[in-house]
Amino acid sequence: MGKFIIKKTPSGAFNFSLLAANKEKIAVASQVYSTKAACKKGMESVGKNAAKCIAEDRVEDQTLKKVESKTCPKFEIYFDKAGLYRYRLIASNGESIAMSEEGYKSKSGVMNGIKSVSVNAVDAEIVDESTEK
Hints:
- With 133 residues, the protein is an alpha+beta fold.
- It has one domain (3-128): PH-domain like.
- Helices cover 26% and strands 30% of the residues.
- It has helices at residues 36-55, 107-120, and strands at residues 3-8, 14-19, 25-29, 59-61, 74-79, 85-90, 96-99, 125-128.
- A hairpin with a 5-residue loop joins β1 and β2.
- The longest helix is centred in the middle third of the chain and has 20 residues, at 36-55.
- The chain is globular.
- The relative contact order is 0.24.
- The model has no long low-confidence stretch (mean pLDDT 94).
């Protein structure tokens, strides 16, 4: 089972990371949220949308010469500036809600990352590190 970690940014906003069962960080929030409740809704959306994308084969590979467009929600695979594969999860409303923190050297690696998000985000434990200790 995965784990969402909520953190507070220096500006007072909130964001999250998703850790796989092996404690490896597999996704980060694509945005910051003004409230903790909104951040939690974003995490819930990641779980719901990631599972749907895998179940319905909604992975749009933008690294191909001929891209087969998919409807939202969807995962998008793309190249970063360093030429590595990355993914982002796009919600039903077209907004990016999560993305890979690091690039992958191979397409199979990025696909494994996407599958890991879809498995680990569903019913993930939530750890709130945003409060002062």
